[in-house]
Amino acid sequence: MVKLKTDTEIDAMYRTGQVVADALKAVRKTAGVGVSLLELDEVAREVLRGAGATSPFLGYLPSFAPTPFPAVLCTSVNDAIVHGVPDGYRLRDGDLVSVDFGAELGGWAGDSAVSFIVGTPRADDVRLVETAERALAAGIGAAVVGNRIGDIAHAIGTVCRAAGYGIPDGFGGHGIGRRMHEDPSVPNEGRPGRGMPLRHGMVLAIEPMLVGGGTDGFHAASDGWTLRTDDRSRAAHAEHTVAVTTAGPRILTAR
């Protein structure tokens, strides 16, 4: 069931969203050659502590996972698409990193992700990250009252496919509010004019995921969490929490 939020509740979700934005900015600032993924997770934890917020990621156990998630930050490097578990890996020059972070504050959740390149960028990686951001912007642009979920999905998918990238099947965005994952599901590919109508007060986590090699195949790594591209090509992930309002989309996790 989709739960519409009042304007006051959307304002409260914006406050949570700014904790998420602050953490991602701090993580991106810290990330550099030689920095470990565990160190990035600690940076995110410190932002949570400073804000008096908690993590919806830590201890999260969905049906597909073998164990609870052990961190507050997802760190997906190079051929990892999403759900990467922070460990002792130290970032290298040219790594493509996607970081996904969530927070809970005052009973409301926020969720966002960003991809970036450490050190010397490769042209192909720059294009991949820029396309992920363009796909996210297209999806947000379609999140208007009177459109449907399929319009968001179609906008994202059109940008991704036109650039020649793959889209992992079955993974996409979601509603968000009192819990990190709520109805409805927001696919990253679909037909315009289909699906649930968008109404004022719907809040969605919109999150395109792109496979650089152009194929859609992926598999779970041995940790049971990290999703990797089958063709071992690099991947990018971008996400914002967005409120659908009569005044247009409002990005609650704007950085």
What's the short version?
The chain is α+β, with helices and mostly antiparallel strands and 255 residues long. It is built from 4 helices and 13 strands. Helix 1 packs antiparallel against helix 2.
Strand content: 15-25%
Largest sheet: 5 strands, antiparallel
Percent helix range: 25-40%
Number of helices: 4
Mass-distribution shape: globular
- The oligomeric state of the chains shown is single chain
Radius of gyration: 17 Å
| Low-pLDDT segments | none
Helix-strand category: alpha+beta
Termini separation comes to 30 Å
* Extended strand count: 13
Q: How do the helices and strands follow one another from N- to C-terminus?
A: HHEEEEHHEEEEEEEEE
Q: Overall mean pLDDT score?
A: 98
Strand order of the largest sheet: 6-5-7-12-13
Characterise the protein shown here:
With 255 residues, this protein is of the alpha+beta class. It has four helices and 13 strands. A five-stranded antiparallel sheet has the order 6-5-7-12-13. A hairpin with a 2-residue loop joins strand 3 and strand 4.
